[in-house]
Design brief:
single chain; 321 residues; alpha+beta; eight-stranded mixed sheet; 14 strands; globular
Length: 321
């Protein structure tokens, strides 16, 4: 599986030659699978485990208690069973994903009313689990820091200045999902073609994923090997690029196609939880493909957030008639 583990330490503290070697490895990896594992990121593992512990308290609540937090895709709150089908974004008509999520997103207003009303609203916090908020807010600050550092690395890997991408993250949008994948004992047998998350690519610039390993875990698609289980390192974050970044690079880098397998009947009690941070850019950024030789396909400019809204709308499962 061409998904390398890259230590960010030499990028942060090394000389120019060491930083160049890291950038070259990143460029090579993103041309094949669109995925990396990164270590040396500096995020406290106790923070990640603390969020999981608090979030499990919320997901274990009875559905009537969770229902007041129910929202649709792209909003802030609880996405219950059947709310989302990620395969829709690539035209795969899968049954709804076998998961629940609690979603957060960018909230600091820009002062532009129309932009703020769509992209920068307050987050919702479950009163039943008061310990979740301080943990998540600390984690979100760490994810913003790490994502900007990754974008600086990507700028250099693309042969551009380090601020090539971060020049457009002064006031960016982002999303953060705590995804809970219930056990087979809870969901029952999946329908044909049903997954914990159906096959898809992410939509933004970079995604930073903290996941748990399991039989019903993450798989990554490459042209050479098809679907393969993703490598796992509990100390590492899994990083992949999204559709907007692939477009920005003229398809030099792959938008990493992936899925999460259904809950396994062979391990009926296996339940997993992922922390997924989706980074984007400033609203209204005009994204155009870099020219050849770095870029390979010359996409015309798009408004970043018109593009992102279309993707979010695509994965929403309509409510029953």
């Amino acid at each position: 599986m061409p998904v390398p583990t890259i230590d960010l330490g030499p990028w942060f503290s090394g000389d120019a030659a060491a930083r160049g070697r890291v950038a070259a490895r990143v460029d090579e990896a993103l041309q094949s699978a669109g995925f990396l594992l990164v270590t040396g990121h500096g995020v406290d593992p106790a923070l990640r485990s603390g969020i999981r512990s608090a979030a499990r308290e919320f997901f274990a609540l009875p559905e009537p208690v969770k229902q007041p937090y129910a929202v649709t895709v792209g909003e802030r709150g609880w996405l219950g069973p059947g709310a989302e089908a990620n395969g829709y974004a690539e035209g795969t008509q899968t049954p709804p994903d076998l998961k629940e999520s609690f979603s957060f997103a960018a909230y600091e207003p820009t002062g532009v009313a129309a932009v703020d009303a769509e992209w920068f609203l307050p987050n919702r916090w479950p009163a039943e689990v008061p310990g979740l908020r301080p943990l998540v807010e600390t984690y979100l600050a760490e994810m913003r820091r790490l994502s900007d550092l990754l974008l600086e690395l990507l700028g250099v890997a693309l042969g551009q200045e380090a601020d090539f991408f971060t020049a457009h993250t002064g006031h960016p949008t982002w999303g953060f999902n705590i995804n809970w994948y219930p056990a087979h004992d809870v969901t029952g047998a999946p329908e044909p073609g049903q997954f914990r998350i159906g096959p898809h690519t992410d939509f933004g610039t970079v995604t930073v994923l903290d996941r748990e390993d399991g039989e019903g875990g993450l798989q990554v698609y490459t042209d050479e090997e098809g679907w393969q289980s993703a490598p796992y390192d509990p100390a590492a974050f899994t990083v992949n690029i999204g559709d907007l970044m692939a477009r920005w690079t003229g398809d030099r880098w792959r938008s990493g196609r992936h899925r999460v397998l259904p809950p396994p009947a062979s391990s009926p009690a296996e339940e997993l939880m992922s922390l997924v941070y989706f980074y984007e850019c400033d609203p209204g950024t005009q994204v155009s493909s870099v020219p050849a030789p770095a870029g390979r396909v010359g996409y015309g400019p798009v408004d970043s957030h018109v593009y992102l809204r279309g993707k979010l709308d695509a994965i929403s499962v309509p409510p029953p008639a």
